[in-house]
TrEMBL record:
Keywords: ATP-binding, Ligase, Magnesium, Membrane, Nucleotide-binding, Transmembrane, Transmembrane helix. The lineage of its organism: Eukaryota, Viridiplantae, Streptophyta, Embryophyta, Tracheophyta. The keyword Protease does not apply. Belongs to the ATP-dependent AMP-binding enzyme family. GO terms for cellular component: peroxisome. This is OPC-6:CoA ligase isoform X3. It holds the Pfam family AMP-binding_C. PROSITE patterns: AMP_BINDING. It comes from the Eukaryota. GO terms for molecular function: ATP binding; CoA-ligase activity. Residues 53-410 form the AMP-dependent synthetase/ligase domain. The chain crosses the membrane at residues 250-269. Residues 461-536 form the AMP-binding enzyme C-terminal domain.
């Protein structure tokens, strides 16, 4: 991991209100410094298990009511790790894929795999067989944890452990079932490979704008820093409802790691459905919902019927991330749910939770901000055209640096060097400013990712598919604003002369090849795609054209 600057020598030159240091144009956090364990041979699972707390119930499956105590959880982690090591032959550095809907078994698998020094990677359950096969070809996992239904998406040749005890005929490749592994008595043999903090712990795939998604490699040290930071958050105690997907960094790091260290109870919904979520709040007296903005908007739109059907009096906090939350949505929510506070946050897969967050009721009343910097990062605002470092209330690209910043991209040195410079600064690709009180405001994205209901959709991937159609000469994909989804992909298409290709045909052509969240939902035909002299698509011109009639 790249270095982390100790700001202490510059404290006297740093503005106490904003955290900005004129001497090096760096914003420093105003939160208490983060204490990290000095042991270089400490894996993140051991760090999590060593944290003292008074929690009793770790996880509850909302669909079945099945619960798992913390003592049962750690017993299961040990037994699954032992089975993986002795029976399956998983060793330090092996990659293990999790392809599963939200489940109480995901934290067990994740913690077990990392305790062995093996690497966890996840795949979106909505992805097609082709998309999953491409990710597997890149990451080369030794083993996959999945369900019987999802196993059909995996290519032949990969060993499989089922995450649920499903009564099925023996299927090629299945080498075990998690719940059976959990029942095996330990042998007493615990000779395993030594795991170092700098070893890779997880590889989560982050979509890019210039081609296929990239595996973000994060170390045990990165994740330990994240968990150590979450241990300091006041709002992380209580009973949580997990609706965010656990294959995503937001869900995996929070609910397979941080809440376990803290001792909070997590009620897991296998999939999101608004009534199921509200029923779980009532049944389990949940205090906190962790959401993406489209779910919060749905809560606003259905507020009257939801409050009539369910007792939501236990709910105190909504933690919202994954995409920007508009001022209108915030105000609408607070009007409908006046006793619930919204705590927003900003982070990236590459920053492992490092960024900005709100953790107090007072700060939550500042609409439009993601909050002050987390206790583990420094920040710079950089002019994207000149590279000049900017100051307070000046808008530019946000750069972050700290112990949670990922090691880089798997087998992609070029992309790593473009995103994380030699000094360890992560170039977020987001246009932001930091105000005179040290609060971070996200203005826009330099990156061209489209965020549909919190999912990242790379335009380049859809464009590459579009131009394979025999009637399409050229194409460009842009984000189109939508009240419910945030954004959805819209395509501008240049047809071949005399082609009668229709909008419906274009939409269907793409729908057959990609996951549902990547579908193109609007098409416009144009004589030519506007481009720069160097051939880059002028997306801003197309966005302006598409939204001019709104």
């Amino acid at each position: 991991m790249k270095g982390f600057t100790d700001p202490s020598p510059l404290r006297s030159l740093t503005d106490s209100r904003s955290g900005f240091c004129k001497a090096n144009s760096t914003f420093y956090t105003k939160r208490n410094p983060l204490g990290l364990p000095p042991n270089p041979s400490l894996d993140v699972t051991t760090f999590i298990s060593s944290q003292p707390h008074r929690g009793t119930t770790a996880f509850i499956d909302a669909a079945t009511g099945h619960s798992l105590s913390f003592s049962d959880l750690w017993r299961a982690v040990d037994r699954v790790a032992e089975c993986l090591h002795h029976d399956v032959g998983i060793r330090r550095g092996d990659v293990v894929l999790i392809l599963s809907p939200n489940s109480i078994y995901i934290p067990i698998v994740c913690l077990s795999v990392m305790s062995l020094g093996a690497v966890v990677t996840t795949a979106n359950t909505l992805n097609t067989s082709g998309e999953i096969s491409r990710q597997i070809a890149d990451s080369n996992p030794t083993l996959a944890f999945t369900t019987v239904q999802l196993a059909t998406k995996l290519p032949a040749g990969i060993s499989i452990v089922l995450t649920e005890d499903e009564r099925v005929e023996p299927t090629r490749g299945i080498v075990g079932v998690v719940c059976e592994m959990m029942k095996k008595e330990p042998r007493g043999e615990r000779v395993r490979d030594r795991v170092h903090q700098d070893d890779t712990a997880v590889m989560l795939y982050s979509s890019g704008t210039t081609g296929p998604s990239k595996g973000v490699i994060s170390s045990h040290k990165n994740l330990t820093a994240y968990v150590a930071r979450m241990l300091t958050e006041k709002s992380m105690h209580g009973t949580f409802i997990c609706t965010v997907p656990m294959f995503h960094t937001y869900g995996l790091l929070t609910f397979a790691m941080a809440t376990v260290a803290i001792g909070s109870t997590v009620v897991i919904l296998p999939r999101f459905e608004l009534n199921d979520m509200m029923a779980a709040v009532e049944k389990y007296r949940a205090t906190t919902l962790t959401l993406v903005p489209p779910v919060l908007v749905a809560m606003v739109n259905e507020a009257d019927s939801m409050k009539a059907k369910y007792d939501l009096s236990s709910l105190k906090t909504v933690r919202c991330g994954g995409a920007p939350l508009s001022k209108e949505a915030t105000e609408g929510f607070l009007e409908k749910y006046p006793t619930v506070h919204i705590f927003q946050a900003y982070a990236l897969t590459e920053s492992n939770g490092g960024g900005a967050f709100i953790d107090t009721v007072e700060d939550s009343r500042r609409f439009g901000t993601s909050g002050p910097l987390t206790c583990d990062v420094e920040a710079r605002i950089v002019d994207p055209d000149t590279g000049r470092f900017l100051g307070i209330n000046q808008t530019g690209e946000l750069w972050l640096k700290g112990p949670t910043i990922a090691k880089g991209y798997f087998k992609n040195e070029e992309a790593t060097n473009e995103t994380i410079n030699s000094e360890g600064w992560l170039k977020t690709g987001d246009l932001c400013f930091i105000d005179e009180d040290g609060f971070v405001f996200v203005v826009d994205r330099l990156k061209e990712l489209i965020k549909y209901k919190g999912y990242q959709v790379p335009p380049a991937e859809l464009e590459a598919l579009l131009i394979t159609h025999p009637d399409i000469l050229d194409a460009a994909v842009i984000p189109f604003p939508d009240k419910e989804a945030g954004q959805y992909p819209m395509a501008y298409v240049t047809r071949k002369v005399e082609s009668i290709l229709s909008e419906k045909q274009v939409i269907e052509f793409i729908s057959k090849q990609v996951a549902p969240y990547k579908k193109i939902r609007k098409v416009a035909f144009i004589n030519s795609i506007p481009k720069t002299a160097s051939g880059k698509t002028l997306r801003k011109d197309l966005i302006k054209l598409a939204t001019s009639k709104l």
